Amino acid sequence: MIYSMTGYASSTGELNGFTWVWDLRSVNARGLDIRLRLPDGLDGVEDTLRKALKQKIARGNVSVTLRVSHPEDDGQYAVNPERLGQAISHLLAISTEAEMRGLTVTPVSATEIAQLRGVIEVRAADADSRAPLIEALKEQIPTLIEAFMSSRQEEGQALSEIMAGQVDQVETLVEQAEALLDDRSQAQADALRNALARVMDATEGADPDRVAQELALIAVKTDVREELDRLRAHVAVARSHLSAGDPAGRKLDFLMQEFNREANTLCSKAQFNELTRVGLDLKHVIDQMREQVQNVE
């Protein structure tokens, strides 16, 4: 099953006057990057969420936002002296070190300090009143992630169908190239005979057998059957990856490089207009397929 790296899910809840909204989304990335924005005071929720995400997701830039509100929260804000002291100490240390290195640091305003995480906190609800909320949030995490994975799976299925069609196109083009080989061989033979005749007419004392041997070597070097065989093998591997249950994005990305290498070699060896056209069509389809692969987990 192919999963897309792009997905989205949201969920809401309500308990004991608390209301909350989850927002979970992801976009393409080379690896797995999880970014969480959760309110303070929800001990254990972040660890549970991060662990659950890592168990389900292999690649993608994943961001999760949780917004929690309570009617009694309005205006019930207070300064956390410990966090404030730590913030000021760190800022002073940075300023001192910068001055020692000859750098000028822009003064930090009180508003900027207040925006640092943990300096200003909501104290409307004590730890006891938050405990049921924390448990409810933890219990909702699996459902949220399942909805998120369903979104990625749905888009992944669409990607799989598109790429399967593109793999079929590659296979058809390989068959077209093979059908051209006999005509190409005849054209090459005619060209080699003409070349041999020109060489013999223009050169006195040339060994006909040696000249014919050199021209035959040129024909061998331009043979494209190996490239077509490898392209056919790549088609089989691509289909295997598309039907596999494991994340296949990196494997498919590498396979696209191999597809492109063989198509480039085919074009460079073609020396036959119709075969060159097929090679260019191959490169076009492979390029389209590579774009789709960038979305695969």
From TrEMBL:
Which segments constitute the Endoribonuclease YicC-like C-terminal domain? 182-297
Give the InterPro entries listed for this entry: YicC-like_C (IPR013551), YicC-like_N (IPR013527), YicC/YloC-like (IPR005229)
- A Pfam family the protein falls into: YicC-like_C
Tell me the ranges covered by the Endoribonuclease YicC-like N-terminal domain, including all copies: 2-160
Record's superkingdom? Answer: Bacteria
Q: Provide the cofactor list for this protein.
A: a divalent metal cation
Q: Which UniProt keywords apply?
A: Endonuclease, Hydrolase, Nuclease
Could you cite one Gene Ontology molecular function of this protein? hydrolase activity
List membrane-spanning regions.
Answer: none
Note whether Kinase occurs among the keywords.
no
Say if the entry is tagged with keyword Nucleotide-binding: no
Q: Which PANTHER family match?
A: UPF0701 PROTEIN YICC (PTHR30636:SF3)
Q: What's this protein's family per the entry?
A: Belongs to the YicC/YloC family.
Record protein name field:
YicC family protein
- Source organism per entry reads Aliiroseovarius pelagivivens
